[in-house]
Design brief:
Elements: H1 3-16, H2 39-46, H3 50-57, H4 66-75, H5 80-90, H6 110-118, E1 124-127, E2 133-136, H7 138-144, H8 157-163, H9 165-170, H10 174-191, H11 196-208, H12 210-217, E3 226-233, E4 237-248, E5 251-260, H13 266-277, H14 279-283, H15 287-293
Antiparallel strand pairs: 1-2, 1-5, 3-4, 4-5
C-alpha cells in the first residue's frame, strides 16, 4: 500500500467532513467547490503556511515534526485513534513494529490457549494481525461458527463479516459491525502499510464486497475496545453481550476478545444452551459452506 497516497487521502477525508462553523470560522457564503474546509482555512487553524500544509496533504510528511502534526490533528478535530493514525502515516517510524525478516508467523502461546479452554461460560477469541482469528474456545465456535472448518487463510474477522452470509444474520446491526471492522483494519494499515498479506486482503475484499470497498474509501479509524453487541443466533435467538478487548502483554499484535452476558439474564441462559449443544450450534450457522462458497 502506498503510504504517501494513504496520508493524502486521509487528510482530505478528515478536512472534507468539517464545516467552517464546526471550527469557529465564519461562513462568508462564498460558493465552495468541494465540501468541508479549504486548505487555507485548515492551515490557519493549525498555525502553518498554506504551502506547508499543501505539501503534507500531497503525502510529503517525512520532515514534519510531531508538534506540527499535533496542531493539524487538533485543527481537524481528530480522535486519539485518528491522531495516532496520522502519525503512523506521516512518520512511518512512529511506534514502528519490531520485526526481523518481514512479518513473522503468528502463534498463540499454549498458556493463552489453556486460558481460552478454561473460560467455559464466556465466548472468547484471539485476534491477531489483519484481524486474523488465531484461536477460539468451544463457546465462541458455537456462537460465531465453525472456524476449524475453514482454511487458515479464511479465518479472518473482516472476511467473516463481509463474505459470510451467516454473519449478516448474526449481527443485528450489521452495518455498525462492518464499519467497526474496517475502522480497526485501517488502524492496523496505518502502521503496517508494507504488509503484503494486508494488501492482498484489502484487494480481495474490495473486489468481492461493494460494502467493504465503500467503507474502506471513507478512511475511518478506531481501536477495538469494548462495548455491547446484539447478536441473533439461529438456535437461541437474540443475545445482548458485553465485549472487551485485552491486549496480550508479550505481543500487542494479539488481543483476547471476550463476550460476556449479564448474570441470570436471557443471554446467559442462551450461552448455557449453546455450550451444551457445542458443535451442533456452530453447524447451525452453515459457516463452512457459506464461507468456502462465497
Amino acid at each position: 500500500m502506498d503510504q504517501r497516497a494513504e496520508l493524502s487521502e486521509f487528510l482530505r477525508s478528515r478536512r472534507a467532513r468539517l464545516k467552517p462553523e464546526d471550527v469557529g470560522l465564519p461562513d462568508v457564503g462564498r460558493h465552495r467547490r468541494v465540501p468541508g474546509l479549504r486548505r487555507e482555512e485548515l492551515a490557519l487553524l493549525a498555525g502553518v503556511s498554506v504551502a506547508y500544509y499543501t505539501r503534507l496533504e500531497q503525502g510529503n510528511g517525512q520532515n514534519v515534526s510531531t508538534e506540527v502534526l499535533d496542531a493539524i490533528a487538533r485543527a481537524l478535530r481528530l480522535s486519539d485513534a485518528e491522531r495516532d493514525h496520522l502519525l503512523h502515516l506521516a512518520k512511518p517510524s512512529y511506534k514502528k513494529r519490531k520485526r526481523s525478516g518481514g512479518f513473522r508467523q503468528q502463534t498463540v502461546r499454549p498458556a493463552v490457549r489453556h486460558l481460552l479452554d478454561a473460560m467455559d461460560g464466556v465466548p472468547a477469541l484471539v485476534v491477531g494481525q489483519r484481524l486474523d482469528i488465531l484461536a477460539w474456545n468451544r463457546l465462541a465456535q458455537a456462537l460465531f461458527g465453525d472456524f476449524a472448518a475453514l482454511e487458515p487463510e479464511e479465518r479472518n474477522m473482516a472476511r467473516h463479516v463481509f463474505l459470510s452470509p451467516a454473519a449478516r444474520d448474526l449481527y443485528v446491526d450489521w452495518e455498525a459491525k462492518a464499519t467497526e471492522v474496517v475502522s480497526v483494519l485501517r488502524m492496523y494499515a496505518g502502521c503496517s502499510a508494507d504488509d503484503p498479506r494486508l494488501a492482498a486482503l484489502v484487494g480481495d475484499l474490495s473486489v468481492r464486497s461493494p460494502e467493504f470497498r465503500s467503507l474502506w474509501a471513507a478512511h475511518t479509524v478506531q481501536e477495538k475496545g469494548h462495548g455491547v453487541k446484539l447478536l441473533r443466533h439461529p438456535l437461541v435467538g437474540e443475545l445482548t453481550l458485553s465485549y472487551e478487548t485485552l491486549k496480550l502483554a508479550d505481543d500487542h499484535d494479539q488481543s483476547l476478545v471476550t463476550y460476556a452476558a449479564e448474570p441470570d439474564s436471557p443471554a446467559a441462559e442462551a450461552l448455557r444452551l449453546l455450550a451444551n449443544w457445542g458443535v451442533d450450534a456452530a453447524a447451525a450457522h452453515g459457516t463452512s459452506a457459506s464461507s468456502r462458497d462465497s
